[in-house]
Amino acid sequence: MKLLRAKTGINKIILDLNDLVYIKSMTPLLELLEGEELINPIEVLKHHISTEPRMGASGVPYKEKQFSVYRGSQRVQAAKELGYTHIEGVIINE
Questions:
Q1: Topology adopted by domain 3-51+59-91
Q2: Letter string b/e over residues 32-41, b meaning 16 or more CB atoms within 10 A of that residue's CB
């Protein structure tokens, strides 16, 4: 596990980058790519996972998500490009 740690923040949790739903069209945060430290953790929303299968558009099974990025999609993009597997974040809706 390669973890991108944030310098600030309380109640941080470790999130697997592969488990996050985020805006993939965002450009990676240039400051991180240039070697600066991650100052603030990403902010995520925690979702309720349904126990019953649900269908999405055109009857395709809906993929349940536990966390979606509220603020920090650029930080997630940069972390992936830099080879990190995990990032620190805070849940903002608990």
A1: 3.90.1530
A2: beeeeebeeb
What's the pLDDT tens digit per position in 50-81? Answer: 888 888 888 888 878 899 999 999 999 999 99
The structure's pTM equals 0.86
Whole-number Å distance between alpha carbons of 42 and 24: 15
Are the C-beta atoms of residues 33 and 82 closer than 8 Å to each other? Answer: yes
Domain ranges of the chain: 3-51+59-91
Q: What amino acid occupies position 30?
A: L
Q: What are the structure tokens assigned to 38, written together?
A: 């991650």
Q: How far is 21 from 25, CA to CA, in rounded Å?
A: 12
Distance in angstroms (rounded) separating the CA atoms of residues 72 and 15: 13
